[in-house]
Amino acid sequence: MVQVMIYRENLFMKTKKFILDAYENVEYYKHIYSELDIDKINSFEQIKKLPLITKPELQNNYSSFISNRIKYIDQQELMIRSTSGSSGQMIKIIWDKKDYSRALFNLWLIRNKVYKLNPSSKFITFHSMNFKQNNINFAKEMSTFHNGINLSLSKIDLDENKMYKYYKEILDFEPQWAFLQPSMALKLSDFLYQRHLKLPSLRYIELTGEYISEFDKDYIKKILNVPICNMYGCEEAYGIASECKCGKMHLLQNNVYIEILNDNNEPIETGKIGDIYITNLNNRIMPLIRYKLGDKVRFTGESCLCGNKSPVIEVCQGRYLGKIKLPNGKSMNSDILIYPFEVINSIYNNIILKFKVVQKDINHLQVFLIIKDYSCKKNIEKIFIRESKKIGLAGLKIMFIYTEKIEQINGDKFKYFESEI
User: Fold this and answer.
1) How far apart are the first and last CA of the chain?
2) In three state form, how does the secondary structure of 380-400 look?
3) pTM tops 0.70
4) Tens digit of pLDDT at every position of the chain (421 positions)
5) Which of 44, 220, 400, 412 has the smallest CB count inside 10 Å?
């Protein structure tokens, strides 16, 4: 009990220091905290009275969220991570590479202790796009990053021939672990199972970015014959919680301070589902304090036999990707749609505030858009059609619909893609 109290006190001091640094260096917080006595915060209860931040507020005041610290950092020491767009709102998050390494540290402690991996352990990922010198690029089929440690494979237009080509590359690369979306882990497992193939060097798989059922998780584990762990995170903070060997999601408290609030923005009791708000304790270039992620989460109140004393959470409504069906009978994950929106926003300075794509039938997509400047509509449509052809959507007819509001369905987390087929 004493150990828990000391840890909570340390977490409070770290959170307070982070908030004070943001107040001193970030224009947005200087403004919204101007009438508050920030220096005299002495409890989590006072932190819980600070203003909440939403994604639209971050988008609309983007430059004001960037710390003055950026002036003193070499551009080569900065990196840009783009949010997944699963909420229909894509945001570029700027990190100092040193801060990003600190955010990774707690996950590496787990990977090393439990799975005997280290930052030089080779791993595979799948991508639809990448950033080169912090600019978006249409990714090559295969790329290596981090001094050859990461082999990243394109998930665009994955047919049997390409999967077999990738399989041979993976064998030659000899990765020790894989960092995958569940949908890609399932696709890889299906390919290996149907052809009686193995990946002998693989020792561990970490899943992230989408919801996965226990049934599918067990299937992947059976086919690949390695331990599997879920990591719940976001580009705004990186790791939020990591699954232990008992199957419980433990908070990474050195990375984030989280709150779970009800619809009235009040703290919710343990066991009940609410909206998760985070304070990203390691990103001093773009600090986000009491920021709404858009996921539904609950504190379970459970203790765990693994020995980790960090609170256990359950992600109740996460990111679930639908399938786009193509006229040629193939299908692809809907996250591929994020690519053309990313290209447009990189060209027109985040002109798209929110988007949603609806597949009406096998031949037609409707693209709903909220944008800043309607004079750019023709160019937006031209770029979207051009870039969508690159990712295999050439056979679909696209209708663009501009609106002031895009509705959420049934109170769930907003879904950027829906299929009516």
Assistant:
1) 54
2) HHHHHHHHHHHCCCCCCEEEE
3) yes
4) 545 566 678 889 999 999 999 999 999 999 999 999 998 999 999 999 999 999 989 989 999 999 999 999 999 999 988 776 555 567 889 999 999 999 999 899 999 999 999 999 999 999 876 544 445 455 567 777 777 899 999 887 778 899 999 999 999 999 999 999 888 998 899 899 989 999 999 999 999 987 777 778 888 998 999 999 999 999 999 999 999 989 999 999 999 999 999 989 999 999 988 999 999 999 999 999 999 998 889 999 988 998 888 999 988 755 556 789 988 888 887 877 877 887 888 888 888 888 889 999 999 999 999 898 999 999 999 999 998 888 788 889 999 999 988 875 544 455 788 888 8
5) 412
Q: Is the torsion defined by CA of 299, 305, 308, 309 positive or negative?
A: positive
Strand partners, 280: 256
Enumerate residues 6+ apart whose C-beta is below 8 A from 327: 362, 363, 395, 396
Which residue reads 């609309």 in tokens? 60
Residues 251, 199: Cα–Cα separation, whole Å: 31
Burial level of 7, CB count in 10 A (0-12/13-18/19+)? middle
Tokens encoding 349? 């300075």
**Going by DSSP bridges, is the β-strand pair 204-207/177-180 parallel, antiparallel, or unpaired?**
parallel
**Sequence-distant (≥ 6) Cβ neighbours of residue 227 within 8 angstroms:** 114, 115, 203, 204, 205, 221, 245
Burial class of residue 168, CB neighbours in 10 A (0-12, 13-18, 19+): exposed
